[in-house]
Structure formats: C-alpha cells, structure tokens
Amino acid sequence: MSRRRCCGRIDETIVCQTFIPQGYSRWPEVLIQLEELEAVRLKDKLGLDQGECAASMGVSRATFQRILGAARVKIATALLEGRPIIIQGGNYTVKNRVFECLNCHHVWEEKPCSAGGKHGYELVCPKCGDMKKMRLDKGVNRPCDSHLLKEGRSDCRKEST
C-alpha cells in the first residue's frame, strides 16, 4: 500500500467550476481536481519552472510532475472529445493571505475566505484598527494535514472525486 500523498497547496479556490462546450453531446464529464488545476496555472499560465511550482505547492518535483501530467491528459481529453470539465475535489490546502497595514506597517496573516476567514474589505489591522491595508502576496506556505496531526488540527480539505 502506498503512503498518503501530502496535500498540495493552492492559492485560492476558483469561482467557475464547470465548463461545458458548445454543442455538448452528453459525453461524461472530465473531473479535474483543484491541485491539478493549480499545477497547470503555475506551470502553463505563470511559466514557472518545475522546482518553483513544486515548492509553491509544497510537494516534491516528482509529485508535481505527476499532478501536472494527470491534469494535462484530462484537459486534452475534454478538449478533443468535446466533454464538459468539472473542477472539484482533491487533496489540498488553501494558502493564507498576508496583509500589511498602510498606517502602522504591521504585517499579519488571515485564513482564506473559503476557510471561514473574512473578506479583504472586512479586515482591520489587528494592531492599530485601521482598514487601509495592502495584500502582500498570494499566500504563505503552511503545513498540510500530515504535518499538523501532531498539533491535533487539520487545515486540509480531502474530498473524493
């Protein structure tokens, strides 16, 4: 039995999770997991090299390559056969958001909106209470469920597809 793969980190969940081709002919859907879409985004859209992509997702280069390969096969199948794409599920964790207060320059992290965190426009600086802030990056790496078991908490989302 193989060991459970560490979950991949993604920047944020997506809004549109279904793509249906024009002239849809009732082929079965192609299911793409969220970490597979993240791999495609990092490699094909942003043009990062494999090492940078793997580091961003918190997985090994070999695991990243397997995730990317699976995603590309699914996308090619959907495009060539005119099948709908459903993006859902997987084994992933969403990165925290990092803000800097423009008033006092305090830097802090917030959980993703989908994980119960507040939206950016609702946030105030925890140090001075000012609402003027700037998002510093698209997320901070944090450990997945496999690494948090010792602490008795889980930030991962595990969904079956």
From TrEMBL:
Tell me the keywords, alphabetical order: DNA-binding
Name a GO molecular-function annotation.
Answer: DNA binding
Recorded hits in Pfam families, A to Z, give: DUF134 (PF02001)
The record's InterPro entries line, in alphabetical order, gives:
UPF0251
Q: Which family does it belong to?
A: Belongs to the UPF0251 family.
Q: What is this protein called?
A: Putative DNA-binding protein
The species this protein was found in = Desulfosporosinus acidiphilus (strain DSM 22704 / JCM 16185 / SJ4)
